[in-house]
């Protein structure tokens, strides 16, 4: 398997190369040169596999020859052996059509664990082969940071610098990051929004003064290996609901478009998916892009679903590349225009290509609260605000009643206790394994929303590798 950049001007790399690189050198994102595809019989034969064995089947075409099947199995066993549920991503039923895929049974109670527990092990495996040192620089709107830090804390040859918008993540999310006191972990609270933090990370990848001294990589969903690992649970859910002999729809609460793009990848691999419902909050750039072709960034509005308070969705570029004819030069020009003006219109090919599989729904705060209350009242399920946005979208998207709709439950409700309590009257408790979170010591730096200040911090605390 070979990987190419969405902007067409970076060298093609193998799986090990894209895992360690993160962002492409031309500012684009890596995608496979072609999509591997399973036959219906091959997918049917996956029924009944454990999550680890299913993960090996789904991911093996993407990782060869960088990993053998046995190496991949060992890495997956280590990653998913830390989950609190034997099924890893268990499926629950709401009613005759609506289902819930629980993705929060990992160490940090969020769907990011599914990918990042594996990614941390992939980093360590590939670094050991070259005796190299890696500097991870990431931005988080809440859950990526804690999942990434848990995955790499204390690991050899890795430093991690995680930026979060000061005061714009929940107290649980912040403490999950800032109470990890390993010497290779550096938390940075910046003044500004997640989009500001993400822009700084992307700028650092293209800053020769930094890349000449540090081998910088990403744990955000711009890293292909993260998306690859998320493809697996689409197969897991569909197989349990009758796939490949029955189509399934998925509703995905999303801000950065990574989680739902993994569903698109599953469809390209042959999994029969009826629709992918992109569920956004009032920060609705994705809804506007998919419904009207208007991909224009506005001002971020803080909400009770902070992981979705985003106006620039990095992974959307991967979809635009794939459905727009895979023309890297044209997309590079299109994205350069967007980066300059924060506005662009999708081409007809991009709109038509996206419309073949995607539907979008915008959910406001009142609708989100009603969905949380409905799940508790009618099903006895306490769900978090992000999952509630997905559930609302699933219920109003107009999917054929004969098609099961799976809402991705992206976070444990205890990560957003205040919002859940306002909507349901119940204050969810943290699981016992995290019950002392508010007694742990915190450590983080507070910096202005200034790239030079962040770069200087990384320079003074990082380990040079070049």
What's this entry about, in short?
With 466 residues, the protein is α/β, with parallel strands linked by helices. Helices cover 43% and strands 15% of the residues. It has helices at residues 15-21, 40-44, 51-63, 69-80, 112-130, 143-152, 171-178, 194-205, 208-211, 224-240, 258-268, 285-292, 316-323, 328-341, 348-355, 365-379, 385-396, 417-424, 451-461, and strands spanning 3-5, 30-32, 91-93, 98-102, 134-139, 158-165, 185-190, 216-217, 248-253, 273-280, 294-296, 343-345, 358-362, 405-409, 445-447.
List the helices and strands and how they pair.
Layout: E1 3-5, H1 15-21, E2 30-32, H2 40-44, H3 51-63, H4 69-80, E3 91-93, E4 98-102, H5 112-130, E5 134-139, H6 143-152, E6 158-165, H7 171-178, E7 185-190, H8 194-205, H9 208-211, E8 216-217, H10 224-240, E9 248-253, H11 258-268, E10 273-280, H12 285-292, E11 294-296, H13 316-323, H14 328-341, E12 343-345, H15 348-355, E13 358-362, H16 365-379, H17 385-396, E14 405-409, H18 417-424, E15 445-447, H19 451-461
Parallel strand pairs: 4-14, 5-6, 5-8, 6-7, 7-15, 9-10, 9-14, 10-13
Antiparallel strand pairs: 1-2, 3-4, 11-12
Structure commentary:
The chain is of the alpha/beta class and 466 residues long. It has a domain of 227 residues: Rossmann fold (3-Layer(aba) Sandwich), CATH 3.40.50. It has 19 helices and 15 strands. Strands 3-4-14-9-10-13 form a six-stranded mixed β-sheet, sandwiched between helices. The protein is globular. The model has no long low-confidence stretch (mean pLDDT 95).
């Amino acid at each position: 398997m070979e990987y190419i950049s969405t902007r067409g001007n970076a060298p093609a790399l193998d799986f090990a190369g894209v895992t360690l690189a993160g962002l492409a050198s031309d500012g684009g994102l890596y995608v496979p040169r072609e999509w591997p595809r399973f036959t219906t019989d091959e997918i049917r034969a996956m029924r009944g596999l454990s999550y680890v064995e299913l993960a090996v089947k789904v991911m093996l075409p993407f990782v060869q020859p960088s990993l053998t099947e046995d190496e991949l199995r060992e890495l997956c066993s280590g990653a998913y052996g830390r989950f609190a549920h034997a099924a890893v991503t268990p499926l629950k039923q709401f009613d005759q059509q609506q289902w819930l895929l629980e993705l929060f049974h990992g160490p940090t109670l969020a769907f990011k664990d599914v990918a990042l527990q594996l990614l941390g092990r992939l980093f360590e495996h590939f670094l050991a082969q070259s005796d190299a040192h890696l500097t991870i620089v990431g931005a988080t709107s809440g859950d990526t940071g804690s999942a990434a830090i848990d995955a790499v804390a204390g690991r050899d040859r890795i430093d991690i610098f995680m930026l979060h918008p000061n005061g714009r993540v929940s107290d649980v999310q912040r403490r999950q990051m800032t109470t990890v006191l390993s010497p290779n972990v550096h938390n940075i609270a910046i003044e500004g929004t997640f989009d500001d933090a993400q822009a700084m990370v992307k700028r650092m990848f293209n800053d020769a003064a930094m890349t000449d001294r540090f081998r910088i990589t990403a744990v955000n969903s711009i890293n292909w290996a993260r998306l690859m690992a998320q493809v697996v649970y689409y197969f897991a859910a569909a197989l349990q609901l009758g796939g490949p002999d029955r189509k399934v729809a998925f509703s995905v609460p999303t801000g950065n478009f990574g989680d739902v793009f993994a569903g698109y990848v599953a469809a390209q691999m042959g999994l029969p998916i009826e629709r992918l419902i992109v569920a956004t909050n009032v920060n609705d750039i994705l809804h506007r892009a998919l419904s009207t072709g208007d991909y224009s960034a506005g001002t971020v509005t803080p909400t009770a679903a902070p992981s979705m308070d985003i106006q620039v969705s990095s992974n959307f570029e991967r979809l635009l590349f794939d459905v727009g004819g895979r023309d890297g030069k044209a997309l590079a020009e299109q994205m350069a225009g967007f980066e300059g003006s924060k506005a662009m219109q999708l081409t007809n090919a991009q709109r038509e290509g996206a419309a073949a599989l995607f539907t979008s729904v915008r959910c406001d705060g009142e609708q989100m609260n009603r969905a949380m209350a409905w799940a508790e009242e009618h099903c006895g399920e306490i769900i978090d605000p992000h999952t509630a946005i997905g559930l609302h979208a699933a219920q109003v998207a107009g999917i054929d009643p004969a098609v099961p709709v799976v809402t991705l439950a992206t976070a444990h409700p205890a990560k957003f206790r205040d919002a859940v309590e306002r909507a349901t009257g119940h204050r969810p408790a943290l699981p016992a394994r995290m019950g002392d979170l508010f007694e742990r010591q915190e450590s983080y730096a507070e910096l202005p929303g200034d790239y030079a200040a962040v770069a200087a911090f990384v320079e003074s605390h990082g380990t040079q590798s070049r």
